[in-house]
Amino acid sequence: MKKVLSGIQPSGKLTLGNYIGAIKNFVTLQDDYACNFMVVDLHAITVPQEPAALTEQSEAVAALYIAAGIDPNKANVYLQSHVMQHAQLGWLLTTLTSMGELERMTQFKDKSAGKESVGAGLFVYPALMAADILVYNADLVPVGEDQKQHLELTRDLAGRFNHRYGDYFTIPEPYIPEVGARIMSLDDASIKMSKSNPNPGSYIALLDEPDVIRKKISRATTDSGREVKFDPENKPEVSNLITIYSQCAGLTIEEVEKRYEGQMYGPFKKDLAEAVVSVIEPLQQRYREIRESGELRQILRQGAERASEMAEKTLQDVQRLMGFVVK
Ligand code: AMP
Ligand code: TRP
């Protein structure tokens, strides 16, 4: 069975962008692939995290995975820090990575821009991400558009290792959805929807109350036109809302356009809000059940145990190939 790996950082609240760009696809893939879905807590600390918030958010993201439909009996759900081999392989891959490659990463440039002091962890972040993927020899990595460059680097590092030490790593493929790989902010369609945006009106958090979601959508920026038409270049705001609608209602872009032909933005937005709420409300219900059940720690333990087995084998193989004296 082919292998899938992905992860989400437990830094702040997850948004509808995370759901549409990533988690929704995790759920689809779990039936046909051997899947590992992590909460990447080691990546989260590349920017300062308050310890209590890190604990809470890590559990929240894991519970959201399951609430969204990931079945922990089909896929491994766990915390990155519980599988030591990620960090160990991460170090080995760091030594194969050049400064120039890391300097070119747009996520690093964005996150370090204007900062007086930038942590070294933020800089070497992509080598750890490569290790996350390669430690399972994953074939496919479901991510949103913004992770494409990190995936490219992972492929380069795998190729470099194979060239230097012998053909070992699978070169992973990104799995980026055709629609919804880049959900934009509700107040500014030139930037992606992000949990780190200081304006909460710009994003829909997966744990926002339904009425808050309705309000945010009714206030979302549109344009001075009146056509519900998908045209990202000339109508970026409306096109973003159509994308969200299509993903939440299970319709194609064309079907959404057709449904609102000759109608104004008002009714479209109203229905959009209900489409989003109809996805999020049951998810929140399951989320609360999981958090209250106390099962989460056991699920995470079991996921980490299964993942560690695979990861340990890879790490030993890699160490042997590189010339380390294996225990
Ligand atoms: P992060 O929140 O940066 O850990 O991202 C977790 C996953 O969600 C990654 O696969 C991202 O590419 C994806 N993602 C984050 N924001 C968006 C967005 N606005 N639209 C689509 N996918 C997103
Ligand atoms: N860098 C990813 C993000 O910010 C998170 C991540 C870490 C990841 N390791 C990964 C994604 C491995 C896919 C595979 O979204």
UniProtKB/TrEMBL annotation:
A motif ('KMSKS' region) lies at residues 192-196. It catalyses: tRNA(Trp) + L-tryptophan + ATP = L-tryptophyl-tRNA(Trp) + AMP + diphosphate + H(+). The gene is trpS. It comes from Paenibacillus macerans. Its EC number is 6.1.1.2. GO terms for biological process: tryptophanyl-tRNA aminoacylation. PROSITE patterns: AA_TRNA_LIGASE_I. This is Tryptophan--tRNA ligase. The keyword Phosphoprotein does not apply. Homodimer. InterPro entries: aa-tRNA-synth_I_CS, aa-tRNA-synth_Ic, Rossmann-like_a/b/a_fold, Trp-tRNA-ligase, Trp-tRNA-ligase_bac-type, Trp-tRNA_synthetase.
